[in-house]
UniProtKB/TrEMBL annotation:
The lineage of its organism: Bacteria, Bacillati, Bacillota, Bacilli, Bacillales. Residues 30-159 form the FAD dependent oxidoreductase domain. Pfam families: DAO (PF01266). It comes from the Bacteria. This is FAD dependent oxidoreductase. It comes from Paenibacillus typhae. InterPro entries: FAD-dep_OxRdtase, FAD/NAD-bd_sf.
């Protein structure tokens, strides 16, 4: 399956990407990971740190699947809001999910510091905003639940936004998720 089209950025960042031999014999390992992209590499690294024997296989070259066309923007609060996750799975499960995602980013940062190259890892805050009055109650509920579960968030209304938010879009309120 062809996962991307057009000119991709990431393949241009490495002059000579590493290559690995094709697996041509039976082998034994504790864990077999199928997929040599970012997720596969991170899983392999974590499992190797735990002392496991790990083999990673992919039909393509390492990093040539969806990893080669990703945005490289990683945030622990994803596409589904905490409110939505809490409605589907309960507040505790939603909070655990966000904490595990946050821990994953911490792990990526730790690993990036150990690499022989500078991967340009930079931490950024996240911003959720409401530009319609109908969105304010959901953003307010999101803020309340995130604070209740110990996440570092601020709620800014229209009075606090000028001078802080510099892009030109009508904003009625925002939630700023900051690094812990």
């Amino acid at each position: 399956m062809d996962l991307q089209s057009g000119k991709l950025y990431w393949p241009t960042t490495v002059a000579t990407p590493p290559t690995y031999p094709t697996l041509e014999e039976d082998i034994s390992c504790d864990v077999l990971i199928i997929g040599a992209g970012s997720s596969g590499a991170q899983c392999a690294n974590l499992l190797c740190e735990q002392g496991m024997s790990v083999v990673v296989v992919d039909k393509r070259k390492a990093g040539e699947g969806s990893t080669s066309s990703n945005t490289a923007l990683i945030q622990y609060a994803g596409e589904k809001s905490f409110v939505s996750l809490a409605h589907s799975f309960g507040e505790e499960a939603a909070a655990r999910h966000l904490r595990l995602c946050e821990q994953s980013i911490n792990d990526i940062e730790r690993i990036s510091r150990q690499l022989p190259i500078d991967p340009d890892f930079i931490r950024r805050d996240s911003l959720y905003y409401a530009s319609n009055k109908e969105d304010i109650p959901e953003l307010t509920e999101e803020h309340v639940l995130l604070r209740k579960h110990g996440f570092k968030v601020d709620f800014w209304d229209e009075g606090r936004l000028p001078g802080i938010i510099l892009f030109k879009k009508r904003l009625l309120c925002t939630i700023m998720m900051t690094r812990r």
